[in-house]
Amino acid sequence: MNTKHKDKLVDKNEMVFFEKLFQEYYASLLSYANSFLNNKEVSEDITQDVFMSLWIKKNEINFDDPIKPYLYKSTYNKVINYLNSFEVKNKINDIDTVDNLINKEIIIFNQLDSLFLEEIHREIESITEELSPQCKKVFILSRKMNLKNKEIAELLSISEKAVEKNITKALNEIRDHLLKMDLISLFFCIVKSVSIYLFI
What we know:
By secondary structure, this protein is mostly helical. Helices cover 79% and strands 0% of the residues.
């Protein structure tokens, strides 16, 4: 096969691959963007732009790594760019008080906080389901039921050291999973939220 035909085959395979990515992630990324913006038209533009950027940068991206975190981070960055430009225009065109402007910034920050918490919660729930039965049981009793180690030990008829060992194992597996999904830094940024039950 000559070089020209090889190039055509590579291009065709790339198109098929990107079409599959688009079909798999477009709807969820659109919903993700729209959760920030509550504007479907703008969210559609941003989501399409994410895939366009992915195509343009395809030679710089290692597709052996999980692509989901990259897509969500790219969507997040483009949403932030839009919100910032939107806010700048409002600050120029509107006669707002300082208090109003601060309140707007707080609302935007809280939106970002909630969305990342939801994403992290989903990943934590996912990896928790994959823990061994005993480890999962101990972790849930500790982090969701807020039982003390001694109470868990008595309830499950195991030693407190066994409880500590299972909790440590669960936390390590969750930490490793969040690192793999490129969510660990985001977790530390928003761990102040009282709604999250995991403390690493």
